[in-house]
Amino acid sequence: MTATLIDLAVSMGRGLAITAWLTMGGCALALACAFLFGLGRVSERRAVRAISIGYIELFRGTSVFVQIFWLYYALPAFGILLSPMVSGIVALGLNVGAYGAEIVRSAVGAVGRDQAEASTALNLTRWQSLRYIILPQAVPRMIPVFGNNAVELLKATAIVSLISLSDITFQAQQFRIRTGQTIMPFIVTLLLYFMLYLLILHGVRRAERAYALPSGNRPS
Amino acid sequence: MSWDSHYALLALPVLARGLWITIVATVLSFALAAVLGLLIVLAEMIPSRTVRTLVRGSEHFIRGTPLLVQLFFLYYVLPYLDVTLPALGCGIFGLGVHYAAYLSQVYRAGIAGVPPLQWEAARACNLTRTQTWVHIVLPQALKPSFPVMGNYLIALLKETPILSSITIMDMMGEANTFGDLHYRYLEPVTLVGILFLSIGLLARWVTGTVYRLLSNPV
Amino acid sequence: MQPLIRIAGLSKSYGSSRILDNLSLDIPAGQKVALIGPSGSGKTTILRILMTLESIDSGQVEIGGARLFDETATGPAYVAERRLRPIRAQVGMVFQHFGLFPHLTVERNIVLPQILNRVASEPEARRKAMELLDLMGLADKAAHYPDRLSGGQKQRVAIARALALQPRVMLFDEPTSALDPLRVNEVLQVLHAVARTTDMTMLLVTHEMSFARNFADRVLFFDHGRIVEDGPPDAVFDTPRDPRTQAFLRLSSQGE
Ligand SMILES: Nc1ncnc2c1ncn2[C@@H]1O[C@H](COP(=O)(O)OP(=O)(O)O)[C@@H](O)[C@H]1O
Ligand SMILES: [Mg+2]
């Protein structure tokens, strides 16, 4: 009995590390894609806009499940072999990044036109206006929605277990096969994911506070 | 190696068979989610803190854990509790419960959007609590929820490939089996992606049209 | 002498409605110009074009001898950003609805544009900001965020922010019309003081007729995208020649 418990704890610990890496890697890539293509979506250049729309529609339109499988099983047909970890991070990052790009676009769009016009009147460059005026007002709006996306990404990492990456879900399945037990490994698995979920919520709440738009007097 | 059109053509009828399962699973689990989601919101109205905490807690738990693991749980654990469901039943139930936890949020936002004056006016018209809900609040709360529900319908559709992991032969299940058979996945998996893209666009058009018709009846 | 601002044959339409109709206008350096006329007559549009915020259908604008537009196959288009920036550096604008940056303190609103334009170092920029805030009677508001200010205070901050960049031309688009009537005077006083103490060229759109008369060396009366009256304030206000100007002035004096 204790041997089984130790076995469970060890394999779940290993799985947790993999899931954490996948989530962090995926989120980092998603964040980069969200800003790159979200700002590209509102670029003055038609070509940049078209590429961004193409990316967003493609990755939002074709299930993340299909994307993970495509990268791992179909891409080798072109001679490109990605490890399960890389396939997972790339697919999760690109998929969630496409949703993130729409968030960036709408948050930037929600900043009043008067802000961009005042920036022009003060002779700021487009980059300066984006960096110092528009983004500081848009980012606080993005954070809670980014948080939801991070949760979706965390949950989608479980799919990677199906391409034999030994994350939490994979470890639970292996444990089930090894020991014939079902209830315990899956309950533990659900609880571990739930813990990671709460961790993300906590992080998002802190980020919200750190980036909150000022209102009222600053203590001087 | 590159794209083999002949092989892709062979895969199509197989995928079409899977598409049928995908559509059935989507429709049934969304219907379940729509009803369950509403029940969740109504259950919260029970004036008991315990009930409310329990409902909210479960909702968080369902939204905070992966659908795949939830399906595994249903698929592998239920038989031990002497509940036997066919795989498709498990899948539809799991998807439905998962999305109910999202749709309840949508309903809640819709209900919060009904102006307080509507409640007061219903009171002034001497309606009972149930009458107020059925005739005044829900109709006004649901209408603005429709476009958001449409988004969730499309999101749910794109999550159905996960059903293949519990042996359901949906589009993805068929594509994988076909690929296993011929040691070649590029065409079937790409076709599944293209089919999802097309269905998504179609669904967006349909839900948009339905919503337009609902908001300005001819 | 070469005028500082030169507008030639400027036209602009939205759909079928003509906003500016073949408008030409020269403004010498240092002139204080009041633009008056019924709403919808194109006053805001002309300021926005000078601030490079609005496209045009035909014509040309020069500021300090530099052209704002290139002729292209599809009509005039603003010159490349690289050439536009030195022109913009000569122009400042105060908007009807302030356009303050809500995420920056009052002081930072004035300091940041100076730094980004490289017209001052951080300490110089802050000194300049405090000096201007003092002038505006707002020294005690430096650390506040804009949402805590009244409309009149916001507008004075916006004026200070534009002045800090020391443009040669200042554009004011109805700076008092979004204000509480009781707050109008505090802004007008500041404007008057600035007008009297600098040799800046100023274009002011306003519905405050008596202020326009005090402030301006020259008054332009706009109607349907044309200038129908152009002269010194006394002439325009006391002996308007065009019947539209006469009617407009009669109506607005009833309002005052
Ligand atoms: N973006 C726009 N689209 C359509 N019409 C516009 C737009 N901006 C301004 N107009 C129209 O242009 C005309 C002139 O506007 P404006 O220059 O603001 O006049 P004024 O400042 O003299 O009141 C108005 O009739 C206004 O309705
Ligand atoms: Mg105007």
UniProtKB/TrEMBL annotation, chain A:
Positions of transmembrane segments: 20-39, 51-72, 78-98, 183-204
Cited Pfam families: BPD_transp_1 (PF00528)
Topology relative to the membrane: Multi-pass membrane protein
All copies of domain ABC transmembrane type-1, residue ranges: 16-200
Cellular compartments per GO CC: ATP-binding cassette (ABC) transporter complex
Main location: membrane
Stretch forming the signal peptide: none
Subcellular location, record wording: Cell inner membrane; Cell membrane
GO BP term (any one): amino acid transport
Keywords, in A-Z order: Amino-acid transport, Cell membrane, Membrane, Transmembrane, Transmembrane helix, Transport
GO MF: transmembrane transporter activity
InterPro entries for this protein: AA_ABC_transptr_permease_3TM (IPR010065), ArtM/GltK/GlnP/TcyL/YhdX-like (IPR043429), Ectoine_EhuC (IPR014342), MetI-like (IPR000515), MetI-like_sf (IPR035906)
Stated family: Belongs to the binding-protein-dependent transport system permease family. HisMQ subfamily.
NCBIfam families noted in UniProt: ectoine_ehuC, HEQRo_perm_3TM
The protein, known as: Ectoine/hydroxyectoine ABC transporter permease subunit EhuC
Organism: Gluconacetobacter azotocaptans
Gene this protein is translated from: ehuC
UniProtKB/TrEMBL annotation, chain B:
Family: Belongs to the binding-protein-dependent transport system permease family. HisMQ subfamily.
Pfam family, one: BPD_transp_1
Intracellular or extracellular location(s): Cell inner membrane; Cell membrane
Transmembrane segment boundaries: 20-41, 61-78, 84-102, 189-207
Statement: the UniProt record of this protein carries the keyword Cell membrane: yes
Domain ABC transmembrane type-1, first and last residues per copy: 15-207
Chief localization: membrane
Lineage: Bacteria, Pseudomonadati, Pseudomonadota, Alphaproteobacteria, Acetobacterales
CC terms in the record's Gene Ontology section: ATP-binding cassette (ABC) transporter complex
One Gene Ontology term of the molecular function aspect: transmembrane transporter activity
Lipid bilayer topology: Multi-pass membrane protein
Protein name, entry field: Ectoine/hydroxyectoine ABC transporter permease subunit EhuD
Domain of life: Bacteria
Keywords attached to this entry: Amino-acid transport, Cell membrane, Membrane, Transmembrane, Transmembrane helix, Transport
Cross-referenced InterPro entries: AA_ABC_transptr_permease_3TM (IPR010065), ArtM/GltK/GlnP/TcyL/YhdX-like (IPR043429), Ectoine_EhuD (IPR014341), MetI-like (IPR000515), MetI-like_sf (IPR035906)
Annotated source species: Gluconacetobacter azotocaptans
Keyword Cytoplasm included in the entry's annotation: no
One annotated GO biological process: amino acid transport
UniProtKB/TrEMBL annotation, chain C:
Subcellular location: Cell membrane
SUPFAM superfamilies listed in its UniProt record: P-loop containing nucleoside triphosphate hydrolases
Keywords on record: Amino-acid transport, ATP-binding, Cell membrane, Membrane, Nucleotide-binding, Transport
Topological relation to the membrane, as annotated: Peripheral membrane protein
Keyword Amino-acid biosynthesis: no
Chain ranges of the ABC transporter domain: 5-249
Gene Ontology CC annotation, any one: plasma membrane
GO MF term set: ABC-type amino acid transporter activity; ATP binding; ATP hydrolysis activity
Predominant place of localization: membrane
Record has Membrane as a keyword: yes
Family note: Belongs to the ABC transporter superfamily.
Record's protein name: Amino acid ABC transporter ATP-binding protein
